[in-house]
Specification:
Order of helices and strands of chain A: EEEHEEHHEHHHHEHEHEEHHEE
CATH superfamily of chain A: P-loop containing nucleotide triphosphate hydrolases
CATH class of chain A: Alpha Beta
Oligomer: heterodimer
CATH architecture of chain A: 3-Layer(aba) Sandwich
Distance between the termini of chain B: 79 Å
CATH topology of chain A: Rossmann fold
Strand order of the largest sheet of chain B: 1-2
Shape of chain A: globular
Strand content of chain A: 25-35%
Number of strands of chain A: 12
Number of domains of chain B: 1
Helix content of chain B: 55-70%
Largest sheet of chain A: 6 strands, mixed
Amino acid sequence: MAFQGQQVSYAYDGKLTALDRVSLAVNTGERVAILGSNGSGKSTLLKIMDGLYFPTDGTMCAFGTPLTEQAFQDETFSFSFRRRVGFVFQDSDVQLFSPSVWDEVAFAPLQLGLGREEVIERVGGALSALRIEKLHDRAPHHLSGGEKKRVALASVLSLDPDVWLMDEPTAGLDPRSQSWLVDFIIQQARAGKTIVTATHDLNIVESIADRVYVLDEEHHVVAQGTPTQVLSDRALLIACNLMHEHRHWHAGRTEEHAHPHIHIPLHTHEHP
Amino acid sequence: MAKIIDTSPRPAQSSSRPRRNIIEHTLADISHTLEQSLFAEEIARRPGLLQSLDPRVKVISILLLLIAIGLSRSLAVIAGLYFVTLALAWRSSVPMGFFVKRVWLFMPFFTGIVAIPAFFITPGPPLVQLPLGLIITRTGAMTALFLLLRVGASVSAGVLLVLTTPWNSVLKALGVLRVPDVFILILGMTYRYIYLFLHTTNDMFLSRKSRIVGRLKGAEERRLIAASAGTLLSRSLHLSSEVYLAMQSRGFRGYPRTMDTWKMRWVDWVWGAAMICVVAAAIWLGR
């Protein structure tokens, strides 16, 4: 098993609850989506799974080892964990802190002590896989949003992790980049990688997940199931603020429907 | 059918420039800085003499040039070294007008102010008699001229390096001067995030501009600036903790490991040797 969380709670500054007794399990090679509205605790959960935050209550285990501050004091464990788990942050600007694209992609292999030739090979491979070789000497602040996301993915791909943790990967991307990113996730899954994606983009869930956990606005896991089971439960999606009722125009007449945050073909209309 | 919007440029409505408020000033300054950065990056990517050299060789040769300019006691030698920087700029596709203006436009404001007293207080034979009993001495004029030329030539050499080398390569090349990796990493991150915050500030001021009608009073402008600075500080604190997490997530444990992929070619060695000769000759001639 890749991850097992038991009754995980987390509160910022000990006061502001972000997660409340969340339990989840992610099998090796599985694709899991964590669905929840803004502020439901998805990002915090991913950070706990990446050993960046530690639960204020409960336990999170990765590959059978509890993720604790003490565990990360051990250089061998820390090295092995960082080597196996890659995290793609929601905001690419957070992840792109190096002065050039090449340095960014080389950062992780270098920190993990890989040799010069291997670093060069991995960086070249990652840049080529994401088709951004031409950007290698560019500064991050001169890149577009889609290019930044590709570089952020390349900076993790150069690690070749067993597990990808992705926080809102399609946020702020244009439709073509979104579609490309979904293909990338599918490609990684086919290569046997474990993929955990936090999102509220219902459009992509069926393509990127075999199983879905749903977080509500009270920071609890309120449901889990296959994408089809979860997406067809309209009451659940509305209760968790992943879908809302609203009124809009359709070819000259006003109608009321339930809609996800981003439109998906859950309903069709006969247009005159 | 959707109506196509005409996006072709419109002629200016009026040639008179209205007085700008603090928001418009800030927006114009940010936009100018971003434009300059893009322009400098574009020059650094042009084919040219300095652009083709290894950044480490460039950093060392410019440093040697600065030492020669600093040590020389001959006006002719300093002027000669300044013309070397002009020739290098020309061979490196740097627009000459832009290069000269960038150095000399602001010189009077900085060095000029420092140099003015030297005209009058340096003892020596009189050169020009001014009203109110003020006398410009020949020695004073020479001292001021030395200072202006020395600073102008040094700034030109520095600007040349920055214009013909992407900033990230300049920083990386500092490693050859034994600047610690952690210092280079911090400098690089500072430079990278300055641009992010410039964009953030730009957006903040644009959003203010969209909600303000008429002119702001002085106190309101000061309040606006203080509020914007506070917001930026708070955002930068949040960003810094997120960036640290992103670094940790990719294996950072407090001491950075870096590497470069530059390889010295024969042209770099030849250039290095040539610069050593030029600098040695300048120091000898200007001793």
